[in-house]
Design a protein that fits this description.
Number of helices: 6
Distance between the termini: 30 Å
Radius of gyration: 15 Å
CATH class of the largest domain: Mainly Alpha
Oligomer: single chain
Shape: globular
Strand content: under 5%
Number of domains: 2
Number of strands: 0
Helix content: 55-70%
Largest sheet: none
CATH topology of the largest domain: 434 Repressor (Amino-terminal Domain)
């Protein structure tokens, strides 16, 4: 189950989850939209009250991760890395 689905099944909003997890509503939104991936510690805090979450299905995409993180490692601009990446664009 995705984090948003689990949250909604319990009738909780993003702000309520943020308060319980000692985080911000913005961070919860970024996770649910697939724009960031939470730490293991954060995952454990959230799962302690929402139950098991399928973090990969939450929306985080490998494409985003490789473009943002590995482009820095490769010392190339994101555009250069995307052009030469295994993702094809």
């Amino acid at each position: 189950m995705k984090m948003q689905e689990a949250r909604e099944a319990k009738g909780l909003g993003q702000l309520e989850i943020a308060q319980i997890a000692n985080s911000s509503q913005t961070f919860i939104s970024l996770i649910e939209s697939g724009k960031t991936f939470p730490s293991v510690q954060f995952q454990r805090r959230v799962e302690s009250f929402l139950g098991k979450i399928d973090w990969i299905a939450t929306g985080f995409t490998d494409r985003y991760y490789f473009t943002r993180v590995f482009s820095k490692t490769m010392e190339a601009s994101p555009g250069e890395y995307k052009k030469n990446s295994i993702f094809g664009n």
